[in-house]
User: Which sequence fits this backbone?
């Protein structure tokens, strides 16, 4: 009797919230992988670029829950790996990724032509369907990449560009807390979130288009041209290694 009552309460809550929760299919595997175009031809450079771990901001990184945390961790780990692959494919050597600039030793800074400090901003917005309508989610974002002179930490160049927006139909689920109880919004309504499958499927699509844009924006000739400016800063007699 208690079990039936519990199911009845959940059904009432669902219809009261105006959202139909659809059953999940088989688990969707993350596919956060970018392989540089095989047709790309790069000229090898003697420049070494030290890469810092990516900073992050935006609503995507504010999601909570064990499944969301695991997805975020995998996303950032893959992003750092594939960003390094892009730089190598463009003809440069790399070192890192370093947790921060301050963790680099003096000799590591001295051997580097530039320090690359990337920051990613990703946001997910959800339009929840009501009374049988599909819910839709959109993910968008931007990239800011700073190139620093290694010894003085002065900025040589800042690259900022938006990433292609991705929208997909998603499945919503009722969120529960660590105690297993349904979570509520400040106004008392039940709290919904993206299902694990929907979140990963959305990000798989976004990741592919994002790295295609990153590949196009990071031009080897543009980066190589920064060496002159970095060398000028490095040759200053009053520089101080931070």
Assistant:
């Amino acid at each position: 009797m208690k079990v039936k009552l519990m199911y009845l309460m959940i059904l009432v809550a669902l219809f009261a919230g105006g959202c139909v929760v659809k059953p999940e299919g088989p688990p969707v595997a993350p596919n956060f992988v970018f392989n540089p175009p095989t047709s790309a031809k790069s000229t090898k450079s003697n420049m070494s670029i030290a890469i810092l771990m990516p900073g992050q901001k935006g609503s995507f990184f504010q999601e909570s829950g064990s499944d969301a945390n695991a997805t975020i961790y995998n996303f950032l780990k893959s992003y750092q790996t594939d960003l390094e692959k892009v730089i190598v494919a463009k003809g440069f050597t790399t070192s890192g990724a370093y947790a921060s600039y301050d963790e680099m030793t003096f000799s590591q800074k001295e051997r580097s032509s530039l320090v690359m400090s990337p920051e990613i901003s990703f946001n997910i917005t959800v339009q929840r369907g009501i009374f049988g309508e599909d819910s839709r989610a959109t993910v968008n974002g931007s990239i800011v990449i700073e190139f620093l002179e290694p010894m003085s930490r002065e900025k040589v160049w800042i690259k900022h560009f938006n990433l292609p927006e991705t929208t997909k139909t998603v499945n919503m689920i009722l969120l529960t807390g660590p105690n297993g109880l349904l979570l509520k919004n400040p106004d008392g309504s039940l709290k919904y979130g993206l299902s694990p499958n929907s979140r990963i499927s959305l990000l798989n699509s976004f990741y592919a288009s994002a790295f295609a844009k990153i590949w196009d924006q990071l031009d080897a000739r543009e980066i190589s041209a920064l060496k002159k400016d970095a060398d000028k800063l490095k040759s200053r007699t009053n520089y101080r290694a931070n």
